[in-house]
Amino acid sequence: MIIAIDGPAASGKGTLGKRIADHFGLAHLDTGLLYRAVARALLDAGRPLDDVAAATLAAERLDVESLDENRLRGAEMGEAASVVAALPMVRAALVDLQRRFAGRPEGAVLDGRDIGTVICPDAPVKIFVTATPEERASRRHRELVRRGEEVAYETVLADIRRRDARDAGRTSAPLAAAPDARLLDTTDLDIEAAFRAAVSIVENMTASSLRAG
Ligand code: CDP
User: Fold this and answer.
1) Average of per-residue pLDDT values in the chain
2) Which residue's alpha carbon is nearest to atom 23 within ligand 1?
3) pLDDT digits (tens, 9 = 90+) for 14-35
4) Residue 123, class by beta-carbon neighbours within 10 Å (0-12 exposed, 13-18 middle, 19+ buried)?
5) Cα 36 to middle of ligand 1, angstroms
6) Which residue, 35, 174, 177, 190, is the most exposed by fewest CB within 10 angstroms?
7) Residue 156: pLDDT above 90?
């Protein structure tokens, strides 16, 4: 069973993806980490983020098994990731890797921006997770403060709005809900409630895809 979870920055799709994967005994890939790792490789090599050749090479050389999540999580990396993620060559270089991950016999949970639309358009379960920009900014702000980053809530909110606009406005695989995705608005849901809602969406969608079968 392939479960595609998409949504804007800090909508909670990563946490949900992990919980859903554990619950159903599936592997989980947070595809945002791939774009963050490409951006990290460029910054480490002293290259500008719009160096298409270097970014494409970094994407081609990525090893999913050795992503250092801790180095990739900060606010600066999210912003840098969204710049390289707008490069069509970078996106193209990462397609096979993501499809291979999804293609394992038991299936997998992938979360990102274009899983239901581009990477796994035939996934039987697609969830598009949303929340208001203010709620997402306050979640992300709490998370960054916990990591020890000193940043104002207003800065995080401006960052989220800018990233939403860039991710939804790019021409290559823009952030969008697939027509057959179920929307999950988590603005008023805590993690437990969002998790329960997502499990029930998965159960409903797998039941109806089996019926359609
Ligand atoms: O955790 P957060 O939602 O802040 O970010 P992320 O999921 O780690 O993604 C970082 C950036 O990578 C996003 O702003 C997107 O520009 C890009 N991305 C993408 O284009 N496609 C994906 N499947 C996943 C992430």
Assistant:
1) 94
2) 112
3) 999 999 999 999 999 999 999 9
4) buried
5) 8
6) 190
7) yes
| First and final C-alpha spacing in the chain | 13
Q: d(Cα 82, Cα 101) in Å, to the nearest integer?
A: 22
Amino acid at 191: I
Q: Can you name the residues that pair with 5 across neighbouring β-strands?
A: 111, 127
pLDDT in tens, 87-109: 999 999 999 999 999 999 999 99
Rg of the chain, C-alpha, whole Å:
17
- Tell me the domains of the chain and their CATH numbers: 2-199 (3.40.50.300)
**Residue written as token pair 């600066």:** 76
140 Cα nearest atom in ligand 1: 4
* Ligand 1 touching residue 133 (CB < 6 A): no
Residue 213 above 80 pLDDT? no
